[in-house]
Structures are given as structure tokens and as C-alpha cells.
Amino acid sequence: MGMIRDRVAIIGMGCTKFGELWDKSVDDLITDATYEACEDAGVELKDIEAAWLGTVFSGHTALSLSSPLKLQYIPVTRVENMCATGTEALRGAAYAVAAGACNVALAIGVEKLKDTGWIGVQPANVVGRTTMGTAGTEIELSPPGIFALLATGYFHKHKLNPEQGKMLLAEIAVKNHHNGSLNPKAHYQNELTIEQVLKAPIVAAPLGVLDCCGVSDGAAAAIVTRADMAKNFRDDPIYIKSMTISVGPCRDPIAQDYDFAHVEENLRASEMAYTEAGITDPRTELSVAEVHDCFTIHEMLIYEDLGWSRRGRAKEDIEAGTFKLKGELPVNTDGGLKCFGHPLGASGLRMQYEVYKQLQEKAGPRQVRDPRLGLTHNLGGTVWGGIACISITGNDLSKKNSA
What we know:
- Strands 3-2-4-7-1-8-11-10-9 form a 9-stranded mixed sheet, sandwiched between helices. The protein has a two-stranded antiparallel sheet with strand order 5-6.
- The longest helix is centred in the middle third of the chain and has 19 residues, at 162-180.
- Helix 1 packs across helix 2 (63-69), helix 3 (85-98) packs across helix 12 (347-359) and helix 5 packs across helix 9.
- It is α/β, with parallel strands linked by helices.
- It is built from 12 helices and 11 strands.
- The chain has one domain (8-117, 213-395): Peroxisomal Thiolase, Chain A, domain 1 (3-Layer(aba) Sandwich), CATH 3.40.47.
- 32% of the residues lie in helices and 18% in strands.
- It is globular and about 60 Å long.
């Protein structure tokens, strides 16, 4: 048995609506998400023994969380791990409970990204300065530019012409927007057509505007406790099966003959997560997954990196509808980053909120069939060095979940 498996349970979660929330402050978002989580768990703020705040830009110290909630002299920690920050906050809270440092802990992720003025197409401080140091040269790349390299690399390696490749990516955008259209908390709640995606203006070829996630504000929160205490709070707690992180070294992928068709950190984090959770066939054992679809090409790579599609065969699964809401393994049932945008500190906990609701069979029109195990996945950084976080949760303690 792994270090954390079946030792910690999520007993309450909250999530704000995501969007251009000009009328909400960071304090408002923290308060809204935390109060929903407390109400869901049936606890009060005075019951929280420790807290973790995940944010990249919207808070500098633990005071950014303790002040709006008026938390009284308890340990509060602010964490940041780029796009994996929300999951990192949950990991801190969960491991503190597993270690016996506290019995009830809060994790919250928040970001007011719109207020920074960042639009996502320039190599700004949001994701750090990305360089390739080949032959003494340095090339700065924007996030769309980096993922465009992955798209062209994947198309080349697996012999897809650009038209075939763009069609597959469009299918992913259409899928996620269908799911987001069913979710009142999503930033974008509109359906898309294949034609709209294919005809959208190009940002970094072959990626168009509708292959990219938006820039949003939002917050999400979770309350965790010891697994043996969980049913004192609610009848349907969700149990943590594994939480893993894989951080790659800074590297020069050109010098290392990188194939630009996978993300190694995704692969390594998933292998560790499946091992700890006891999962041997993730495609059939997982019921639902929320993954880091910052760009449609990344979701396509994730299908293979996380072992759901064979290498080079994601095309077949996309065409078969494997990852649609009614498919074999529904992915991004809430609309994903594509419909929520990506307020960096909040995304990981927003994903966990959807998996939590799915496992409790409280996801309304997005509900998957007979859910047992759910996965969330974040990737921060780039192919020059990334941070992949994965959590796997389930709705019971039965060992048949991970036989």
C-alpha cells in the first residue's frame, strides 16, 4: 500500500463560477469557494486545523488566505507550482492529514488572472522565460508556440497530414464545449462546430484560437480529513487513492533528440499514480478524468501519455468517441480548461471538484455511468522542464477498486 492510499478523504468542496469576474476580489473568491466547501462538509471555519493556499499571482503569503477567512492562529501555507498549483495545495493538505499533523485541513486555489492583463500569447512572467540554447542561440516562445511544436511533432511522428491533425484537435474542442454547455460554473457555455474550430484565426500554426483555453478568474476549495473520520461528516466522502508529482529537469530537447510527440513528466507522474492506487488498466478502471487541456493538442497527447490510447492511436479513439460524455472513458466532463479558462492556482482544485461531484453522482446532466475512480491531471511548465501532478480518488475503500 502506498503512503496516502485510503488514508485521507475529501468531505467537502466548493467552486466559484469561472470567468471575467471584474466585480469579485481575490478575497471574495476565496470566501465564496471556502464557504461552499464548509457548507458541503458540514463544518465551520473554527473546525479547520490547517490550511494551504495555492496561487501564482493572487497572493504573496499565507496572510492572503488567513485574513479574508479570519482564520485564528492556525498553520497556513502558501504554495506555488505553476499550472499545477491547485493540485499542489490539495497535496499539501492531504499529506498533512495522512501524517497525523492535523485531522481537518483546507486546500484552496485562487487566481484573478484577468487583472494581470496577461492575454496568454506572449512569453510573459506567467510561465517564465522559455529558451532553447542550441549553438549559442536563444529563442523565446509563447505558450501557444510551445504547444504548436508538440502538434507538428506529433503529426510528423505519426504520419498525420495537417488537415487530418487539425480535424482531430477540433473534435476535442467540440467535445469539451459540449460538456461545458451543460455546466453553469463554466466561463464558456457555448457549443462549437467542427467548422468553427477549423476556420478560427491561427494563433501558432496549426493551433487556432479555438484550440486554446481562455484567460479567467476563479477559485475552488476542498476540505480533507482522515478516512476513518470521514463518515462522521457525510455519507458519501471521496477517498484519495494516490497523489503524485513528477518534475522534469531543465533540458534542451533539440540537443537531446526529443520527439515533440509526448510529455515525459505526464508519463512518469501517471505511472507512479497508478502504482500507488493499484491500477493496472487505467482505461477500463478509471470512470472519469479531468486533464490539462490548455491546448487541444495537449489533451490528445495526454490520452497516450496516461496510457488510455496506444502510442500513435489516439486518432482511432477520438473518432470512436471514446472520451466523450457517454464514451468508454469520459474526459473533461465539466468542459475542461477549454471552457473554464485557466486561472492558474484554481484549475487543479476545479478539476477535483468535478471528479468529486461525479463520484458522488451529483453532476447532473454531465453524470457518468456507475463511477468508481476518477483522475485529475495538471501540467505546469513546458517540454523544456515540466511539473505534472496527478490525483486519483474513489468513492469507497473497497480493494476491488484497485484489484
